[in-house]
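Thought: the user wants the 3D structure for the chain below. I'll pass the sequence to the structure tool as-is, report back what it returns, then summarize two notable features.
Action: structure_tool
Action Input:
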Amino acid sequence: MNRPNSGLAGLDFFRRIPTDLTEATSLGAIMSILCLVTMFLLFTSELLAFMTTDVTTTVAMDTHLDKTLRINFNVTFHALHCDYLSVSVWDALGTNKQNITKNVEKWQLDSEGKKRIFSGRNKEQREVKHDTHDKSFQEMHENGVQAVDVQESTFDSFLHEKENAFVDFYAPWCIWCQRLHPTWEAFAEKVDEEGMPISVGKVDCVKESKLCAAQKVNAFPTLRWFTNGNAVQPDYKSDRTVNALNAFAARKLEATEKFKDWEKKAKERGEAGN
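Observation:
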């Protein structure tokens, strides 16, 4: 058998493995078994670590000694009344909410967005009371609907049916509006029973969006009093109970009558002076 040229054999990239390296031995078998066991243990431990979740808690000490933390911010809304804004603070978990609106200073702005008049701080907001009713909303309508549904086409005529009108601007998706519906209908029934010269109506601001935009309704529900077709500000923001609404309407009627009496006497004094 001819031996290959030594110079040419040096360029062989596919050399044969020596026979002694391919022989199976007991020591090699033991090492192979140990490697397989080690690989299995490593795979199992990594898989268990990946599938297992741990809950860890970290306590961070606050070195701030004051009980309150001052946060300065400046937010400007050109087309939103300050009464409809609130500021709240949540904890890191989002479970504890604290209303801090009462500590926020508010300023009236001019048309260019510059500060004009200091409006002071918010008063502490109290919880608004609501009525509970034994009858359902549908049962209240068995004797007819007292709170009139008003559309854009009938809004002006509705306001002038009587000297005074009380209107609920609402949105069907609003939970507070839904809660007010039976109370508003019960209030309208009481107004009719007592013969109060008031038109009680309601406007769906989803269907009548243009009307509500023209009336500058920025929150739901908005309960607005009208006299001779003109809105009387501020809007009603007290308890949403039949008694509270009825007492408010009675005060408004009394104030209107007093104004009429004052206006009449003023004219009489003017005529007497002439």
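Final Answer: Structure generated. Helices lie at 6-9, 26-51, 137-140, 155-159, 175-194, 209-214, 242-273. Strands lie at 88-90, 97-99, 105-109, 115-121, 148-149, 164-170, 198-204, 222-227, 230-236.
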